[in-house]
Amino acid sequence: MGDGYEKLLAPTDPRIKHYPRSIARRIRVALGQEPGDLLLTGGQVVNVFNRRVEPADVVIADGTIAGVGPYEWRASQTVPATGLFILPGLIDAHMHLESTLLTPAELARLIVPLGTTAVISDSHEIGNVLGVRGIDMLAAACEGLPLDLFFMASSCVPATRWEDAGAVLGPAEVGTLLSRPRVLGLAEVMDVPAVLAAEADVLAKVETALCAGTVVDGHAPSLTGRELIAYASAGIRSDHESTTAEEARAKAALGMLIQVREGSSAQNLDAILPLLASGELDDLWCLVTDDIFPTDLLRHGHLDGLLRRVVAGGVAPGVAVRHAAYVPARHYGLADRGAVAPGYRADLVLVENLTDFRARMVIKGGQVAARDGLCLDVGISPGLPHENTIHLPHLDEGSFQLPISAVTCPVIEVVPDQIVTLRALRTVRRVDGRWAFDPECDVLMIASIERHRASGRIGLGLVSGFRLTHDGALGSSVAHDSHNLIIAGTNARDMLICASALAAHGGGFVVAAGGLVQAILPLPVAGLLSIEPADVVCRQLGEVDRAAHALGCPLTAPFGTLSFLALSVIPELRITAQGVFDVREQRFLSL
Amino acid sequence: MGDGYEKLLAPTDPRIKHYPRSIARRIRVALGQEPGDLLLTGGQVVNVFNRRVEPADVVIADGTIAGVGPYEWRASQTVPATGLFILPGLIDAHMHLESTLLTPAELARLIVPLGTTAVISDSHEIGNVLGVRGIDMLAAACEGLPLDLFFMASSCVPATRWEDAGAVLGPAEVGTLLSRPRVLGLAEVMDVPAVLAAEADVLAKVETALCAGTVVDGHAPSLTGRELIAYASAGIRSDHESTTAEEARAKAALGMLIQVREGSSAQNLDAILPLLASGELDDLWCLVTDDIFPTDLLRHGHLDGLLRRVVAGGVAPGVAVRHAAYVPARHYGLADRGAVAPGYRADLVLVENLTDFRARMVIKGGQVAARDGLCLDVGISPGLPHENTIHLPHLDEGSFQLPISAVTCPVIEVVPDQIVTLRALRTVRRVDGRWAFDPECDVLMIASIERHRASGRIGLGLVSGFRLTHDGALGSSVAHDSHNLIIAGTNARDMLICASALAAHGGGFVVAAGGLVQAILPLPVAGLLSIEPADVVCRQLGEVDRAAHALGCPLTAPFGTLSFLALSVIPELRITAQGVFDVREQRFLSL
To answer: Which chain B positions have a beta carbon within 8 Å of A283's beta carbon?
Structure first.
């Protein structure tokens, strides 16, 4: 066919809208000339175009919907849907899938039964560890799952120049990622100051994505006025950081898709819900989770849980479903998803009612994928390779000795349930010119150990807020965004035990006390993901949390808090492998 | 940048959303750090996102909008817009530009001052004459114009197997066209029976377009029920043939974009307008002209005229503008068009009010392109090559002799102002075994002469409805869709004169009488387009119409009627170079 195919997608491209060679059969099935593969009878279909709910049968051929309506169709398998409502598969338009700690297959097992059939992930956690190869690994692990995972090319790896990440994603690597079939555009452009300073590197990434004809996601908390206009003028067309109705309204007026976020660490739905109910945001909203723990998915559900709350808040069910499926599909160019209509992919959710959206059955690509909360089969999914990515230098107890010049020291002060920290001054115990733990004083040593190249870089500092009353330490290989080891503890021995255990398991969450590991959640895939089933991961997460609580730590999610203490873009103080960093002053402190 | 650029568009691709290297400047302009190129002050902006009309300045840099809002901006040129309303440039989502008879440059000169800044053309007329090369010629003639012309890859060339077209566009040629930067998808799939019969050739074209990630346009007059569902299941997502509210409602319920058509030969706006006013079609409508003569553009305007009527019919101005700009831009993937917002292309229309939409100024890509109804400059547009495409065999008066076996003959009966014809029986005059004109009897000889390859194929038949009372003939090189010569006349001599004049001018509309050309509108570009300015074309069109009327023909648009008599997909009788064709019976008649 000559040069006509230059622009064509590969036949295996997941964005291909129709299974080749099936259009003819679909037409014959729609016309009643031959049987389809699956027929849903007697249900009510939620039409995302006119937002009505109407009785209709649905016939499927080769994974795609051939017909919807009050016609006689035949199929080799019939599923009675009497009393049920048929929705398109739900789509989470912005998630960092690594925050679930699960492999794609285990994530599918957890959320497909809840009605989610596609997720768009910014996998910048694994990007920071393994670069393009990490995102390629996750993409490969999606093949054959009943959940379609798409990716956005991460725009800010590393997050700042003050961090030692495992990889750098420059404009060239972003271009490489954009050429991948599952990559839909450029991920949240978090470095707002760099955009406003018109820095060449970040704008080259934006330009690369726009020239590829793809979308660019935003991340612009509290940005207003001229600066918001300048940010939008770069071609950034979505945002998931609106925390007030006013902020959402202003961003939508510029044409940005408001991705209403409700995850484990940030919840904005209540603030934005009145705007959704009033219709003011018109077509410019959808629902996302951003960062969510598997325990919260188990407890509150996924998009089904958000639909419940949106409808309870006054949004008509047909509108709510449109925005949880069709609107994100259209925004990201997934042209055959998000509707129960002829020619659309047969990703369907059968729910009992349009108030609690509990899924009785989930159909993915025309196959029954889940029934009554259980995933039938996650298919043959290639396992994730989990070579150990934790590369440490020689460490001993001497590695965790912090000389201090005075007993009054600057410490990183945790603010419970927030990711900002404060810069505080505390009087601490000093023994032989070094910091020493004082059970009366809520101050721990905190260490960030570069773990990608065993460079020997170790940053040491002090943190308050963990309120340990017993000797021990908490360690994690999840430390945004560079994911170096981060360990907080009362003494060098337990901190060393944490480092050794993390190195042995290839990463994880660990608690040590009395020279012994008390509990561990291993995360052997890039130090970020477990290879265990979701229920095991949730149990292990409970165990490490309980072990931390046993040391006296009252924080709801000690490892969530710990993991954000390295993120050197958020005020005020952070720990990196280069030391304690003052974000406002953009410099390292000396203790 | 390695393999990352596989999917990237060429830097000159008209779909590229941002002028490279200008993002940085745009940001600085938005922040007020440096002056832009053009600043519109004191106007009211129509916001297509929230549909509000609000006072705002607009600052432009490098052809793109940098800022919109109540801020202090600077620019090297300031245009006061006090008292004016600022809209995005209007987009006609479905036009056969050849029906205007104008070159792209002359079309721009005519419609840019009316506020149209982009047109999506299915140029299947030139496709039938010159194939891919014809569409490439038109695309090349667009470069540098203040009007962006995009194309859809024609899906039905030739329209049927009963015609002798100049070219065939099979799946391979459709693939070639889809690789062109200005081609946005597959044009109206008119061969509904072929789709419903699941014919491989047409479905291969649909599949090629879908696999390229592009949209597929529909054309499905009166299709309902199961057949409409089957048609939609192929992935066809628009339609411009709805003639009733009921039809539009049914198509929109399947997610098809309803392109409300108001052209020279078909007008559907009045029928659909109540649906637009009630909001029932939601986002699924836009405005198109399909086929429009330059005289109608002069008389009634283009999209500006339709906006007047839509708003008078009860659609809020913000909604109407959204659907005349943003909705078609989004549907066809023109992601930086259709809104007056930061990061969007600076295609703007300044109108006096939101009732008559008269444009005071049109800005294209940041440059003032028209003022007070006059195009300032159509730029340096390459001329269209006009090698003569009329290739005729030797013809003489003997070529126009029609032997008839009886005095009662089947004739093609014209239905005034419609393109359907009737099969009628008429008693005619017979001299020496041949048809002869009888002034008392409204029957003319009609000839279709294959003109692409001088094959010598000439089909002869009889037509009634032209009601000539004087001896003479009308000839045209525009004869849908194959564009062979079509000539109707009372006598062989004048018909031969018509053929000779058309051959000499490379095509056109011609009237001959008494052995002399009475009037001619030359169409030397592929026998379809004039190279003259719009006002000359309109004058010449008036002259040939008057010459036809002088022979007694009462039809409003004699050449419009003549041009459709060869279209062998529309009942009942048609003339092709292979003879008189009965569309219902799918066979040729013998006289």
So the answer is: 283
Among candidates B32, B195, B342 on the partner chain, residue whose Cβ is nearest the Cβ of A233: B342
pLDDT for A561: 94
Residues of B in contact with A193 (CB under 8 A): none
CA-wise closest residue to B344 among B48, B38, B34, B18:
B18
Q: Could you write out the three-class secondary structure of B257-316?
A: EEEEEECCCCECHHHHHHHHHHCCCCCCEEEECECCCHHHHHHHCCHHHHHHHHHHCCCC
Specify the pLDDT at position B419.
81
Q: Which residues in A lie closer than 8 A to residue B203 (C-beta atoms)?
A: 23-24, 27
Facing residues of B488 across strands?
A: B446, B474
Nearest chain A residue to B336, by CA: A235
Q: How far apart are CA A42 and CA A82, in angstroms?
A: 4
Chain A residue at shortest CA distance from B175: A4
Strand order in the sheet with B421-427: B421-427, B408-414, B458-464, B444-449, B485-489, B473-476, B508-513, B516-522
Number of Cβ within a 10 Å radius of residue B168: 12
From B133's Cα to the closest Cα of chain A, the distance in A is 14
Candidate from A453-467, B9-23, B42-56 with smallest mean pLDDT:
B9-23
State whether A234 and B206 contact (CB < 8 Å): no
Of A214-228, A277-291, B376-390, the least confident: B376-390
Using alpha carbons, select from A554, A565, A571 the residue that is nearest to residue A470.
A554
Q: Residue B537 phi/psi, 5° resolution?
A: -60, -45
A-interface mutation test, from B229, B280, B284, most A Cβ less than 10 A away: B229
pLDDT surpassing 70 at residue B8: no
Gyration radius (Cα) of chain A, Å: 25
Give strand ranges (E) for A224-289. 238-239, 257-261, 285-288
How does pLDDT run across A513-567, given as a tens digit for each residue? Answer: 999 999 999 999 999 999 999 999 999 999 999 999 999 999 999 999 999 999 9
Of the candidates A206, A243, A250, the residue with the CA atom closest to the CA atom of residue A228:
A250
Which residues fall within 8 angstroms of residue A197, CB to CB, at 6 or more apart?
none
Q: What is the dihedral of CA A368, A372, A374, A376, to 10 degrees?
A: -20
- Mean pLDDT computed over B87-115: 97
**Residues B295, B537 contacting (CB under 8 angstroms):** no
B227 closest CB neighbour out of A31, A173, A195: A31
Asked whether the beta carbons of residue A233 and residue B8 sit closer than 8 angstroms, the reply is no
pLDDT higher than threshold 70 for residue B18: no
pLDDT at residue A14 tops 70: no
**Which residues in chain B have their CB less than 8 angstroms from residue A32's CB?**
226
Which residue among A178, A231, A342 sits closest to B232, beta carbon to beta carbon? A342
Q: Do B16 and A211 touch (CB under 8 A)?
A: yes
| Nearest-by-CA chain B residue for A132 | B4
B265-278: per-residue pLDDT in tens? 789 999 999 999 99
**What band does A253 get if pLDDT is binned at 50, 70 and 90?**
very high
pLDDT given for residue A4 in this prediction = 32
Name the β-bridge partners of B374. B371
Q: What is the ipTM of this complex?
A: 0.93
pTM summary value = 0.94
B332 Cβ contact partners less than 8 Å away, ≥ 6 residues apart: B93, B120, B150, B184, B185, B215
| Closest among A347, A374, A329 to A533, alpha carbons compared | A374
Nearest to B179 among A3, A234, A237 (CB): A3
**Which chain A residues are within 8 Å of B283, Cβ to Cβ?**
283
